Structures are given as structure tokens and as C-alpha cells.
């Protein structure tokens, strides 16, 4: 397992994350042709973006898993949605990784969503390698970018490479480790493998040479322990589109990124060296193969050696299930996995028995923690265009809430179900997937509620609250009681009136 590297790529939308994902797969030998996301026709379909809405808009809206091997190291790459409207999916994905690559646009620097995702990584002490992308275009000064990463994210920064000019005067990237310069070639000015030793080939402009001297003298040396502790980030410069800096990035993940890390559970820390198999479900995806209406639960292996056909007990079920067809992923392509080690991500086909947050184990003596649901920021009622399709709608909403795309609330009074999301784009995905995957046409209508809170307390306290507030109560898909509030003031008022109850904006799975 020490040769496993399980990592995510995080960024603001349009920083070049999906392009970088493809180039990492290309360098790793996992694909032989890079299809640009914004190209036309068939070439448009980036391997990690397989949903219809992703292909139409050229964005990632669901996390996907890709496994590849290079030089004896197994890389498990989790591509996450960049758009803030899918932050829940991204958050849960980050619980399953041991490190992350943070992609920053050289012209724009740190953008709001990058900062949010970084905070999630910090909470979990996930070590981060920074990749400053698009240096072949006009961008800000290198020092300005480095200072922003250091100041805004409170991280020590160590440049591991340096761009020789930017935009129209871009002449390559100097790698400090090898003291070689990767040079652009041909009309498209891509990196095609030509490297000059520093001092050979075209001379480095005087002002850039001065910057490099300053950087090497002024920034600290790379400290592996500080990086793995989440206090320091090595910074690489390059262009994913033109293939600069990608090989160095793979090398950095192999050399520096940590192998599988221990995970916290209700029973204490579970080490990857533990002999029996344990793991947790961090994502469920329906209809990756629409023809078969499949449901795949993504499990992060925490310990042990999994063998195909093994029986594991899900914490939510209590009785063992045999895992006959575990899957290794390459985006939506897949192959049967005979074995898997700590750090690997395997897919388990199931029919609704496995849920996000479930722990799977051989002995059923452990339960992993830390996969929360967040209170929705937008609530909408769902209205069917064809009332005869109520059953299909219920099935679709259950499936999609199981995935974490939406949350569903069933009001105690009234028949119209309410969906809750973190961002508007999730609603677009909901309508698109209802139509494409379930053949259900629906519209979303305004809801009288503004937000939701999970409520907990004694049975007597809950009953007393329900007697006076039944029109504001709903159940989530687990059957837990939820207070549907018309405003933030409403939440505060009820908290004051009912001190024996807790009104929570998160719910741990």
C-alpha cells in the first residue's frame, strides 16, 4: 500500500482542472489521445466528464475516479466539480483522499471557490501541491502569485519551478530539481520533450535570471514533513493545455504525497496497516450506464487486502453482503478488481443497500465518521408535468438524494415534495437528469421555506414541538425530523422557544 497515491484536484471553475486531469492520464499512459473539453463533437468529451449536462456545458458536475499506474506507483485520481454549487460532492470526495493538487489560474490567482476548498483540506490536514496553470498566457508576476498563496492561505510556499517569461514572451519552464528548461516547440508552442540544461539553448532574459536568483535565495527549501502536515505547499508552474509541468507534477505526487493515511472512527483511529478489511462509502452514483440503471457505491479502502467475492458488513444494514463484482474505474470505463489495498477506490454495484457514509468491514466493529450533510441554501417544490409519473419521480428523487446531488424533504402536511440544494446549478442538473435518465418531466416552483434544520431531542420534546409546528415539519429520506424555516429569524425564534431541542445545520451520516 505504500505505493498508493490517492489524491484530488481542486480549483475554481475554468482554472484548467479537467484539462490537467486529462494530461495527467495521458502522461500516466492511461489514455492515448487528449480530448479537450471545449473542442467540438466527439473530441469534446473529456474522459472524466461523461454526463450529458457536463458534455453540453463543458464543466464537471460530478466527482469521478480514475486509476492509473506509472513507474510502480498506483495513482487514484479523484476529479471533483470546480463549481461552488457542487461543494457537498467535493467535500465528501475530499474525505476520501490523502493529498490534493490545487490548480490556480496564473492571471486570476486565488478565487473564492479555491479558498473554500482549501479550507476543507485544512480542516482535514490534507497536504497540497499547488499548480499555477496557463503560464503560456499573460499573467501576474510570479512573486505576486506566490505572495498571495502565502498570505491568503497562511501557507509556506516553495517554488519548485519557474516560468521563463509569460504570454507572448514565454520561453519555457525551469525545473529547479534538474536545472533543465522545458522548451516550447512548433506552431502550437507545446512541450514536445525538448529540454535544455540551464545555460544551454536560448539564454534566460536578464530580468528572469534575476527573479530566479532571488527566488532560490529568498524562499525556504522544501520540507517533506511540513508539506505532509499541511503547513507548506510546493508550487509548480506550467500549462496543462501545452503539457508544461505535468510530468513534474506526477513525479512530485509519487515522491512527496503521502501513502494511505489513518482514518478517524467512533472506535478510534484506524491504521492502514490493520489486517482486516475496512472502508467507507463517500459517494453513490446512479446510471453511469443508463441502459442498465446501475448504482455504484464508491468505497475508499482504509485497511486490509480486499479480495473479490469477500463478504463485508455495511454499518447501515447490519448483515454481510458478498461483493462479487468490485470495479476499478477509469472515468465511466471500468474493469473488475480482483484485489484492492488500503488507499484504493473500488466501486460496488448495489441496488440501494449502500449509502453515503456507510462503513464496510469484515468484523462489523468499526464506524468511520466525518461525512456530513449540509443544510440546503435553496428550497424548491417539485411539480410533475405528467401526474401519472409520481412513482418514477419518487424513485428518481430517492436515487439522486442518495448520491448527494440533492436533498429531499417530505412535508408532514401537503403532498408536494421539496428538494434542497446548495447552489442553483444543482437544480439544472436535477431537471436535466430527471429527463435524460428517468424520462420524467418536472418543473420547480417556489417553496414557502427558506432553509431547513435537523432537529434532535427527547421524544416528548419532539412531540410537543410537532403539536404546534406540524405545518413546518418534514422528514428527510432517512425519516429524521426536519424543521422547515421561513427565514433565519424563524430558526432563532424556535431555538429560543425550545431550548431542549437542537436545531442543526449539518447532519453526520
End-to-end separation in angstroms reads 27 Å
**Spans of 5+ residues with little confidence (pLDDT < 50)?**
34-63
Q: What general form does the structure show?
A: globular
Helix percent reads 25-40%
Number of domains in the coordinates?
3
What is the mean pLDDT? 84
Taking Cα atoms only, what radius of gyration do you get, to the nearest Å?
24 Å
CATH level-two architecture of the largest domain: 3-Layer(aba) Sandwich
The number of helical segments is 12
Organism: Novosphingobium olei
GO molecular function: GTP binding; GTPase activity; guanosine tetraphosphate binding; translation release factor activity, codon nonspecific; translation release factor activity, codon specific
Family: Belongs to the TRAFAC class translation factor GTPase superfamily. Classic translation factor GTPase family. PrfC subfamily.
InterPro entries: EF-G-like_DII, EFG_III/V, G_TR_CS, P-loop_NTPase, PrfC, RF3_C, RF3_dom_3_sf, RF3_GTP-bd
Amino acid at each position: 500500500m505504500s505505493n498508493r497515491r490517492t489524491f484530488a484536484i481542486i480549483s475554481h471553475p475554468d482554472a484548467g482542472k479537467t484539462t490537467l486531469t486529462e494530461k495527467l492520464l495521458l502522461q500516466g499512459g492511461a489514455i492515448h489521445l487528449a480530448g479537450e473539453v471545449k473542442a467540438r463533437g466527439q473530441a469534446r468529451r473529456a474522459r472524466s466528464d461523461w454526463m450529458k449536462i457536463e458534455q453540453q456545458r463543458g464543466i464537471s458536475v460530478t466527482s469521478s475516479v480514475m486509476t492509473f499506474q506509472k513507474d510502480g506507483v498506483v495513482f487514484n485520481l479523484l476529479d471533483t466539480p470546480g463549481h461552488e454549487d457542487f461543494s457537498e460532492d467535493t467535500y465528501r470526495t475530499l474525505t476520501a483522499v490523502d493529498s490534493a493538487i490545487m490548480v490556480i489560474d496564473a492571471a486570476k490567482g486565488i478565487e473564492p471557490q479555491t479558498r473554500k476548498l482549501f479550507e476543507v483540506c485544512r480542516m482535514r490536514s490534507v497536504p497540497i501541491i499547488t499548480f499555477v496553470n496557463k503560464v503560456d498566457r499573460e499573467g501576474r508576476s510570479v512573486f505576486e502569485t506566490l505572495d498571495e498563496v502565502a498570505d491568503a492561505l497562511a501557507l509556506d510556499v516553495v517554488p519548485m519551478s519557474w516560468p521563463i517569461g509569460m504570454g507572448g514572451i514565454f520561453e519555457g519552464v525551469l525545473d529547479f530539481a534538474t536545472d533543465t528548461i522545458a522548451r516550447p516547440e512548433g506552431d502550437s508552442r507545446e512541450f514536445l520533450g525538448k529540454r535544455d540544461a540551464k545555460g544551454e539553448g536560448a539564454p534566460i532574459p536578464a530580468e528572469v535570471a534575476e527573479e530566479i536568483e532571488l527566488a532560490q535565495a529568498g524562499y525556504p527549501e522544501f520540507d517533506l514533513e511540513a508539506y505532509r502536515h499541511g503547513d507548506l505547499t510546493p508550487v509548480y508552474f506550467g500549462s496543462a493545455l501545452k503539457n508544461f509541468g505535468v510530468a513534474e507534477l506526477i513525479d512530485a505526487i509519487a515522491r512527496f504525497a503521502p501513502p494511505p493515511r489513518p482514518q478517524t472512527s467512533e472506535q478510534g483511529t484506524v491504521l492502514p496497516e490493520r489486517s482486516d478489511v475496512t472502508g467507507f462509502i463517500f459517494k453513490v452514483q446512479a446510471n453511469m450506464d443508463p441502459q442498465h440503471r446501475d448504482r455504484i457505491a464508491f468505497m475508499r479502502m482504509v485497511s486490509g487486502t480486499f479480495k473479490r467475492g469477500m463478504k463485508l458488513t455495511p454499518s447501515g444494514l447490519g448483515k454481510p453482503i458478498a461483493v462479487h463484482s468490485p470495479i476499478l474505474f477509469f472515468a465511466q470505463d471500468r474493469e473488475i478488481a480482483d484485489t484492492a489495498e488500503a488507499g484504493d477506490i473500488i466501486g460496488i454495484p448495489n441496488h440501494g443497500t449502500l449509502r453515503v457514509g456507510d462503513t464496510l468491514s469484515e468484523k462489523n466493529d468499526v464506524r468511520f465518521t466525518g461525512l456530513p450533510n449540509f443544510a440546503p441554501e435553496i428550497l424548491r417544490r417539485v411539480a410533475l408535468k405528467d401526474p401519472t409519473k409520481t412513482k418514477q419521480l419518487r424513485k428518481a428523487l430517492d436515487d439522486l438524494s442518495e448520491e448527494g446531488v440533492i436533498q429531499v424533504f417530505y412535508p408532514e402536511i401537503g403532498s408536494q415534495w421539496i428538494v434542497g440544494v446548495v447552489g442553483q446549478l444543482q437544480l439544472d442538473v436535477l431537471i436535466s437528469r430527471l429527463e435524460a435518465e428517468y424520462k420524467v418531466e418536472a418543473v420547480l416552483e417556489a417553496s414557502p421555506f427558506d432553509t431547513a434544520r435537523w432537529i434532535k431531542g427527547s421524544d416528548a420534546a419532539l412531540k410537543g414541538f410537532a403539536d404546534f409546528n406540524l405545518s413546518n415539519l418534514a422528514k428527510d429520506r432517512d425519516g429524521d425530523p426536519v424543521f422547515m424555516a421561513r427565514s433565519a429569524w424563524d430558526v432563532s425564534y424556535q431555538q429560543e422557544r425550545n431550548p431542549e431541542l437542537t436545531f442543526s445545520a449539518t447532519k453526520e451520516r
